[in-house]
Write a structure and sequence with these properties.
With about 325 residues, the chain is an all-alpha fold. It contains 16 helices and two strands. The longest helix is centred in the first third of the chain and has 30 residues. It is flat.
């Protein structure tokens, strides 16, 4: 036996008692904090029963033709149909367009956060933050009902256009050419309170010494914004980009309540296609396959999110 092998064997022999001591230390720590673990157990059990078990069931169901009562193993058939389903193919085009729009709309909360940050009066900054956050008090259903009325034939948008001299008779959500754009327009001017507060926190955290040094060097106005302040909130921007990816892929509430994916497939998205397969077609296996694909996409985006957070000093 070579000297290297002997040395390696000695190291392996030393690792055994080290691992044993580590396990004993872990068990002692658990026993010492047994009351805390006992109090946590209902939460852990609830997560296993209501989160992990359904996810595992969906993975199992994705390989079966399953209507809720009988299940027949079909292998990869559901995933093959996933690649051929015309409604689902159109939904990926729609979700891509929505994603591009949602990413571009991050510019609005960034701008508002910066304008609030630059206000010289602390009291004014406080009240503008209150005004930004105040709309989230209203239930989401109120938001949906309001926008459905705005897009209706006799709704607010057509009333405004007629007042401007435009003879508008458009049913915005009932026209395949305007339905997806109407869903994008929802929430105008796209100032989401959570996003504004994250950007604002990033601006507030910029060291005053850095800004003073920039002023000495002659950086003012937009030059200061693009060269000094915007790079300092890149950590927040990275996180919000990934969260926007995840939220857009997951979301189907707007399409469900506003258009139910229509007219035709004009506003269909993957989450809504999964919902329809489950609730209308009783195709639980196919719905599970769509859910697994969405899970993989969202998991990859979440891992990217975690990596970006670790790679950012902030």
């Amino acid at each position: 036996m070579s000297n290297f092998s002997v040395a390696q064997a000695d190291l392996d022999g030393k690792d055994v008692p080290a691992r044993s001591a580590s396990r004993s230390s872990l068990l002692r720590a658990i026993w010492k904090n047994r009351i805390l673990y006992l109090l946590l157990s209902p939460t852990i059990i609830g997560m296993i029963v209501f989160q992990y078990y359904p996810a595992l069931t969906a993975f199992w169901g994705s390989f079966h033709s399953w209507d809720g009562r009988r299940a027949r193993f079909v292998g990869l058939f559901n995933y093959e149909f996933f690649l051929e389903d015309p409604r689902l193919l159109q939904s990926w085009v729609n979700i891509f367009l929505l994603l591009i729009f949602n990413l571009a709309s991050l510019a609005m909360p960034l701008l508002i956060a910066y304008l609030i940050y630059r206000l010289p009066n602390a009291a004014h900054r406080y009240w503008y933050r209150v005004l930004v956050v105040l709309p989230i008090i209203a239930p989401g259903f109120v938001f949906i009902v309001l926008w459905r009325w705005l897009f209706s034939l006799d709704g607010g948008i057509n009333i405004i256009l007629r007042a401007l001299g435009v003879d508008s008779q458009v049913v915005w959500l009932g026209n395949a050419d305007t339905a997806l754009g109407s869903i994008m327009f929802m929430g105008f001017p796209w100032i989401e309170a959570f996003t504004v507060l994250i950007f604002l926190a990033g601006f507030i955290a910029i060291p005053s010494e850095m800004l003073d040094a920039a002023a000495v060097d002659g950086a003012t106005g937009w030059q200061r914004f693009f060269r000094i302040e915007l790079p300092q909130v890149q950590g927040q921007l990275k996180v919000l980009v990934i969260l926007t990816f995840i939220g857009t892929v997951q979301d189907f509430g707007r399409a469900l309540f506003m258009t139910r994916g229509g007219p035709g497939y004009a506003t269909m998205v993957p989450g809504l296609r999964m919902y329809n397969a489950f609730t209308q077609e009783n195709a639980y296996g196919y719905a599970s396959a769509i859910g697994v694909i969405l899970f993989i996409v969202i998991l990859v985006l979440t891992l990217i999110n975690q990596r970006l957070i670790r790679s950012t000093e902030q």
